[in-house]
Amino acid sequence: MKCLSHSYYMNMALELAKKASPLVLPNPRVGCVIVKNGTIIGKGYHQKYGEKHAEVLAIEDAIKNGNSLKNATMYVSLEPCCHFGKQPPCTEAIIKSGIKKVIIATRDPNPLVNGKGIQILKQHGIEVVEGVLQKEAESVNKEFFKYMKKGIPYIAIKVAQSIDGKIATPSNKRFLFNTDDENVFVHSLRQKYMATLVSVNTVISDNPILNVRYGEIIRQPIRVVIDTNLRIPLECNIVKTSDEYSTYIVCSENVNDTQKIKLLSQKGIKIIFAKQSEDGHLELSDVFSKLAQQKIISVLVEGGSMLNFSLLKKRIADYWYSLIFNVFIGGQNTKGVVGAEGFEEFFPKLVNPKVTIFKNSTIIEGDISYV
Ligand code: AOF
Ligand code: ZN
Predict the structure, then answer these.
(1) Domain annotation covers residue 315
(2) Are 135 and 159 contained in the same domain?
(3) I need a labelling partner for 262 at 20 to 30 A (CA). Which of 141, 159, 281, 319 fits?
(4) Residue-level pLDDT at 1
(5) Model confidence over 209-220: pLDDT tens digits?
(6) pLDDT for the residue 173
(7) Any idea which positions bind NADP(+) (predicted)?
């Protein structure tokens, strides 16, 4: 009998989890492998929101191939659920199957599960080992973990800049150097994150659609516009296409233009009200907790330099993408990537950098660190 280590099989479960497409959103990506007498008898990963979980698919896979699960060992990258959501509890399926041992990478941070799945399995005489490749498993679902633990979405910022850090021309015109490489890249990001967010200034100046048009189209993002005073023009592309793509506008709870609210709502746009701070801007922590209440677990911010600064200053931005085009723009007062007053003493940092080189641009991405 082959006897490979727990981390060997857990690594397979994690590789399966990574195959999950953004169609699982807002669920986590979960992979599962079932082993008996050193042989893999079943495999599965969660494929689509609302559909079967990884464990059930792996159990079905094993049965389909004529295997008995009696005394088998299950490796799963997230603690099995024990609640009725869109799907019945995985713990029930595991208990019924005859599996005798479950190896788990990490607990499910969802308060409906968090440790209770493990407890139920143990109560039914199943041996449970947890914490195998825990860090790796948490990083596969870093968006889901942040959302569950902090009650706000995971926030990634994307900027398009010149080599000298400018995001517009000296006369404040947006520059458009995107070729296919950059378009496919940006549109893949719009699918990876649950929502794409811009400020109303971007809507007014660029009139974007914010949908996915390049590369393989798997899902369309929810579009979110931050619009304190509900200035969004009714004839803009976002409003015009609101019957095709989910659209949210976040405005101040002080907005009382009932006519405009009604008009936008009739077009299928969801209006969310957030607190306004004394400086006149929306309180970003409230904006994002309201978005989390809508089950938005991750957001790609394609906003301007002021918003970028605020997200860094509030220490709520998690990831950064710079699309650096091979051009110089210059100009003493030309807008840079991060605006407002900037940082004088404490500087957020980009860590674990990754670089992708295209013909006309280089992409630098990485985690944002505040320590
Ligand atoms: C698992 N295996 O493959 C996944 C889990 O609405 P439901 O029934 O799909 O439940 C969604 C919740 O279940 C989700 O928030 C997370 O806590 C857990 N996801 N659990 O045992 C899986 N995707
Ligand atoms: Zn489950």
Answers:
(1) yes
(2) no
(3) 281
(4) 45
(5) 999 999 999 999
(6) 86
(7) 160, 202, 228, 304-310
Q: What is the pTM of this model?
A: 0.94
How far apart CA 297 and CA 318 sit, in angstroms, is 13
- Mean pLDDT across 4-23: 96
| Structural tokens at position 187 | 């549109």
202 pocket-lining for ligand 1 (C-beta < 6 Å): no
Question: How far from 325 is each of 46, 322, 344, 357, 369, CA to CA, in Å?
Answer: 37, 9, 27, 10, 24
Reported residue count of the chain is: 371
Decide if 337 contacts 161 (C-beta within 8 A).
yes
pLDDT score for 3: 52
- Mean pLDDT across 324-339: 95
Q: Is residue 1 part of a domain?
A: no
Per-residue pLDDT at 176 exceeds 80: no
Active site residue 136: no
CA–centroid distance, residue 71 to ligand 2 (Å):
20
Query: Of these residues, 15, 51, 55, 130, which one is catalytic?
Result: 55
| Domain span holding position 88 | 6-144
Tell me the average pLDDT of the chain: 96
Pocket of ligand 1 contains residue 132 by CB under 6 Å: no
357 Cβ contact partners less than 8 Å away, ≥ 6 residues apart:
363
Domain containing residue 248: CATH number? 3.40.430.10
Among 25, 29, 21, 81, which residue's Cα sits nearest to residue 56?
Answer: 81
DSSP-based three-state secondary structure for 262: helix
77 CA distance to ligand 2 centroid (A)?
11
Cα dihedral sign, 296-297-300-305 = positive
| 291: CB partners within 8 A, 6+ apart | 152, 153, 195, 224, 248, 250, 272, 299
Phi, psi of 299 (to 5 degrees): -135, 135
